[in-house]
Amino acid sequence: MAQDKAQDNRAWLGVLPVMLIVAFSGVIPLMTVVNYSVQDILDFNTRFFVGFEWYRETLTDPRFIDAFLRQLGFSAAVLAIEIPLGIVIARGMPTQGLRASLLLVLLATPLLIPWNVVGTIWQIYARSDIGLLGVTLNEMGFAFNYTAEPLHAWLTLLAMDIWHWTSLVALLVFAGLTSVPAACYQAAELDGASKWQVFRHVELPRLKGVLVIAVLLRLMDSFMIYTEPFVLTGGGPGNTTTFLSQYLATMAVGQFDLGPAAAFSVIYFLFILLFSWLFYTSVMRSEEDS
Amino acid sequence: MRGVKDLVDHTILCVGADQSTVIVALKYGSILPCCPTSPCANHAAMSALNVKDVRLFQEATQGFDHGFAAGELTVVLGGNQSGKTNLCRLLAGLPTQASGEVWYQEQDWTPLSPQKRSVAVVFQAFVNYPNWTVAQNIASPLVAQQLDAPERERIVASLAQTLGISELLQRLPSELSGGQQQRLAIARALAQRADVLVLDEPLVNLDYKLREALVLELKTLLAETGATVIYTSTDPRDAFALGDQVLLLHEQSALQSGTPLGLYLSPKCLAAAHLMSDPGVNLLPRANFNGSEQCSAIRPEHVLLPGETVQDCTDTISFHMRVDSVERSGDETFVHGRVSKDGELQDEKHWVVRRPGMHGVSVGQMLELNVRGDDILNLALD
Amino acid sequence: MAGIRLHEISFTYEGAREPTLLPISLDINDGEAFSLLGASGAGKTTLLNLLSGILRPTKGRVFFDDVDVTELPGRDRHLAQVFQFPVLYQSMSVAQNLAFPLTTRGASLSRADILERVSTIARELEIESILKRSANAISLFEKQLVAIGRALVRPDVSLVLLDEPLTAVEPSIKWRLRQTLKRVQEELGVTMIYVTHDQTEALTFAERVSVLADGQILQTGTPQAVYQNPAHQFVGHFLGSPGMNFLPLDVFPRSLQRTFAMDGDPDVIGFRPESAQLTAPSAQLLVGMVDSQRILGTAQGRVVSMYGLRCGNAQVFVRSPASFACGDEVGIALNHPVGFREALRVGGDGPG
Q1: Taking the model in full, what pTM does it have?
Q2: Could C74 and A206 be called an inter-chain contact, meaning their C-beta atoms sit closer than 8 Å?
Q3: In terms of CATH architecture, what is C242-346?
């Protein structure tokens, strides 16, 4: 028994570096933020404990609420478009041969481009004076100007996000589809199932796992979107594309309101945690029920 | 040496019941002079590999001890989840739920890592280095032994020859069939020239025709290595085909050990009888029980169909069976059905009758079966 | 239900040099239980895919009840298939799984008819108690029963293909599923083709068996016929464990050689391990030397062994209750010798 104990302790030693890294990169900064969020900091030596004052202030701040609702709308739109589109693309892809490899490379390309570059690409691409997209649309008679029209700004942002991230969903679903045994398709074919029935009853149940991952990834990412709108629209026109992260950055870096910004961060963090948890448990529960 | 073993087996038959002492005596008496060349002969009945206080699963309450005879092949027979693989991993020093001491001769292996034990393992799955050729795979343990190149080549060539994969030396494992891959894994294990060779259901993933051929080859091959071999299986036929000794595992513990025929003739209890029978033994209807601690059973191959006469036995018992199913493998017929004694329906038992040849039995038919009194096993209930 | 006729069908995979199937002709009767038996690589799966419409034959025609279905896709052939591993719609209940083939392609059945049909099949397979359960929540054995049920549920099913359906089932309960399959086949009278590499499954299930090797059918016949009178040496070798023994004619004593030569002039004589007796050697008998012994068990109180014997350069196996030691010279009396010339069966059908 004594020997078993010794071996167990060795295992702990192995985990220790990871725990240290996680502590320094995650837990300690998070705790610092929590610490800031309950204090009013004037300078390094002058600070007061203010309790939940910053939280109350943040949650009742109309600009915060607006940004939050905007954020929800954006994430919902992103999920509603990218997930089905990704599935459609994945199902349409050839599974073997040169064409399949080429398509995979093509699909993966947008994922490899840095986020600020993506913003820059679309900023130029959609410009109504020199951008290919902007000029074309204007030539066709649409008075397209994303720097002045909130709707145009939104559509451009959505188009950019879809262009950037649908590939991820498609690749995940594609990987999921390759694990469906050929016999399942064959059985459905002999049963006389329609294309929709094959998708609904053969593929979808087996895609559940990857779809959960895809939705979680896209939800969290789109909820935290910062760089692209920062580069593309700078939050405008007006505040119409100012999302949570941008507002937060303005507060923390621009105005140096550390206390409120910290409270904001904690609330932000908890929201993402809550959404992911709600989604995950509801999916898992439905799994158990069936 | 085989002749001597036959003599041993036949002598037990004559002696009958308590055979374990007889076997040992005969082994000392007759095997020694027969094989003076074998280095292990002097320890023939001494166990080289000993395990002490083995618990195959974490939740096991009681440990068991066992000695594996030196230079002999022990077939470890047990059902699924009986802990066969755990035992193998324990012997090899691989991480496992099982705990206990492992001693090889005078050496305590318990604290040693797998690399420091003289043990080679063949797993159920075909485990080879996928990006090395067959030759490189076989040579891999020889490189570790720091042999020079010509010596390595010589050993690789001879092992490949023995296992019939000489033609395939330059291929990659992925280009081999299942049978060839497992031959390669066995060759690699033999190349380690370890004192202990552990084979964990090595043939279970192969076609039966291939299995049949490989079992016969393995018997001679493994005997030639002089190693102490542990071979796990679920099939009692493997015990007869390969085993010098058999160890039965049941409910996570050792149940009984002895020669294959010894265990076949005198199983200690119902579970032991089931393990050494394929399909399992048939329980006699309760009317034939002798008391409550005991039960009586008959092996499927000892039940005679109508038209077969009982020989060399005066005591014959008849049963009636309603046939549920008839299966034919060509060389054998298996008749499944429900049996009662004198038509008493409340105590029906499911039986299987296993007879050589093809028999014209049909489903739903009533059969009168005969059983020799001598063949009935009186067994302790578990 | 339908009789199946394969007319000279052959198949070569695209880009392959060698054909996978050589021209095969085969008639399977309406309502027959038929088996295709062969080792992996014999062409069983290709033949199965030709029947189910996944592949089109390179040459030849496929007929279902005299209707040429060669060009028809699988879904229009009214056939069903049971696969090696249970294929179910995992998000549905057992009952929904069974009903599914009846609800597709605008089937004309009413709701009541569907329920009726599902309960008939469930009763037949004795799975009524699990109808309400999710297809994910039942044992592997039950899953395969449900898969079989789904194959049988369409009243117009012409043919059921079974592709090694017992692979995933635990060995000790395989016989129950085999028995259920056989019973259902007899009661519903559906034509079934059972593809397997396992001789017990083929010989137990089928009224007739075809043995395949290297893309050819070597023999088609009743289980007894293929086992006792193999038309080709491979059939004799493949069936039985161990398979048939083969000895060149010159190993036998002159008197026996003359007897064998009168019946079709064979060059090889085959016999089963169980259809020979070991006795004292004599000039009239085939003689061999015992070189291995494997105990099988006991019969009538005597130890039965599988003896390996060396006859000339060849090894044979004989199952015998006699006791011999390695090195003994023994006589081998054959009960049912079978003659072959160039691997093909020659001479009369022998006794039985």
Answers
A1: 0.80
A2: no
A3: Beta Barrel (2.40)
